[in-house]
Write a structure and sequence with these properties.
The chain has 513 residues and is α+β, with helices and mostly antiparallel strands. Helix content is 39%, strand content 13%. Helix 9 links the parallel strand 9 (259-262) and strand 10.
């Protein structure tokens, strides 16, 4: 294996097979990943905590004989804790804080044989669906360095697209795996609620709306990793329904004739502005592809009060922000201060302090009602298709608060909690702008259903546009079968950003079959 070329031709399952056949060593793979991180990360700003020494030491040691033994891996700098390695959550107050032990999901990644080579960039506490933290600066899209890598798992999305590693972890509380999957042209699955563990530190994440998994180059990589990590841990409040067979075995199986609904209607907030024509074009091309594969495709959407859904979700997340601010400050032994946090995070926290306990309970009950209504819709359809996002990758900074908005947010941040609600209309435009961007995604965090972004469309300028598929609760199997079928029909493995492509790079990728 020649590290400068062949490494990028393999997905994680392919690299693990090379290790099993002793055609390459784990150390050679780790060195190949480090070489690419050192060469490309200065442009991307995807990796914020290199772990090169630890990775080389692990690769030379007795790695577990897991299904992904020796494969280099990157971990998002949020939620997933690696013992002794800083985890900032994207906030400057925790820049140098390191947890004493691995989280359960990290233990399972290591048991699968993965070698962690670094931590990836994220937005502060994962609240924004783009990765532009003040602490580390923005992550750049490898297809166009002026554009967003999405968020909050933007560092992981960019790293996988730029072939630094074949897979990297992500967490998804409002689209944070699927957003960067779409804008970076990679595969991103949000599993069913409870499918992967949140312990031992967390009981559940965002009232069950958030869950961790990964962004991957191939469908089979996502399935293989989920097989290695699925299952409730000690003290979990719930568990996802058991699968019939390994998820990896679903990839390549015939999905049969599925009844698939599609829509461009916003599934949270309001339809303003309308989706970009490129996203609509990609959706209609995907509908035709699905019909050609024998699926029944019908235009339909769940009937839910989507404006109220936005308000309920914002109430819940603002309460989470208020607690994140309080717990973070306590962790380092100080009182929370505006200067310790980004303006948008601080204002969201102020709003969370202004809502009452009754407001929070009302919001979570409404979210539960919406989940019931969506569940009824999925008794009629196997899958719901939308664009992943209403726009192709935007220019970095385009969705940040304007100067005028920052002045308004600054005024709100100075108010006492009891008065913040009186200024809520000052916050609302920025909140709706954010919800507009993730209009197709949040519903499935609320319902806990599995959902995936599949890289099926590209603009004339070569920018990725993902297509989004949501399945029934507990039914990742159908999504993996469908994704495998789509990957076979419209393979994306041969697509790569200019920083990766070389004259000898094949148009298709024979190592991912």
């Amino acid at each position: 294996m020649t590290a400068l070329h062949d490494y990028e031709s393999y997905d994680a399952v392919g690299l693990a097979e090379l290790v099993r056949r002793k055609e390459v060593s784990p150390l050679e793979l780790v060195d190949a990943a480090i070489e690419r991180i050192e060469a490309r990360n200065p442009q991307l700003n995807a990796v914020v905590y290199p772990m090169f020494a630890q990775a080389r030491q692990a690769a030379q040691g007795e790695l577990p004989d897991g299904p992904l033994r020796g494969v280099p891996f990157l971990v998002k700098d949020l939620l997933a804790m690696v013992a002794g390695v800083p985890i900032s959550f994207g906030t400057r107050l925790l820049k140098n804080w390191a947890p004493p032990a691995d989280s359960e999901l990290v233990r399972r990644w290591k048991a699968a044989g993965l070698v962690i080579a670094g931590k990836t960039n994220t937005s502060e506490f994962g609240f924004m669906p783009w990765t532009e933290p003040e602490l580390f600066g923005p992550t750049h899209n490898p297809y166009d360095l002026t554009r967003t890598a999405g968020g909050s798992s933007g560092g992981s999305g960019a790293a996988v697209a730029a072939r630094l590693v074949p897979m990297a972890s992500g967490g998804d509380g409002g689209g944070s795996i699927r957003v960067p999957a779409s804008v970076n042209g990679v595969f991103g699955l949000k599993p069913t609620r409870g499918r992967t563990p949140a312990g031992p530190l967390y009981y559940e994440l965002w009232e069950g709306c958030a869950i961790e998994h990964a962004l991957t180059r191939s469908v089979r990589d996502s399935a293989a990793l989920l097989d290695a990590t699925a299952g409730a841990d000690i003290g979990a409040p719930y568990a996802a329904p058991p699968q019939e067979r390994p998820f990896l075995a679903e990839v390549g199986r015939d999905p049969g004739k599925l009844r698939i609904a599609f829509t461009t209607q916003a599934l949270i907030g309001v339809d303003d502005p309308p989706p970009d024509p490129e996203c609509v074009r990609g959706l209609h091309a995907t509908v035709k592809l699905l019909e050609s594969l024998g699926h029944e495709v019908v235009e339909a959407a769940p009937k839910i009060d989507y404006a109220e859904l936005a308000m309920a979700f914002m109430t819940m997340t603002s309460g989470q922000a208020a607690n994140d601010i309080r717990e973070t400050a306590a962790l380092v032994g100080r009182k929370p201060a505006r200067s310790d946090f980004e303006l948008s995070t601080w204002v969201l926290g102020q709003l969370g302090r202004a809502f009452t306990a009754a407001d929070y309970v009302h919001a979570t009950r409404f979210l539960g009602t919406a989940a019931r209504q969506a569940g009824d819709f999925f008794t009629q359809y196997d899958v719901l298709l939308t664009p992943t996002l209403p726009t192709p990758p935007f220019v970095i900074g385009a969705l940040q608060p304007s100067a005028a908005e920052r002045r308004l947010l600054g005024a709100v941040s100075a108010l006492r909690a009891g008065k913040v609600l009186t200024a809520f209309d000052l916050v609302r435009p920025f909140a709706l702008k954010t919800f507009s961007f993730i209009r197709y995604l949040v519903l499935f965090n609320v319902t806990g259903q599995p959902a995936m972004s599949v890289p099926l469309h590209w603009t004339d300028a070569g920018l990725p546009v993902g297509m989004h598929f949501a399945g029934r609760f507990g039914d990742e199997a159908t999504l993996f079968r469908l994704a495998g079928q789509l990957e076979q029909e419209r393979p994306w493995a041969g697509r790569a950003p200019a920083m990766v492509r070389r004259p000898e790079t094949p148009a298709a990728d024979p190592a991912i079959d």
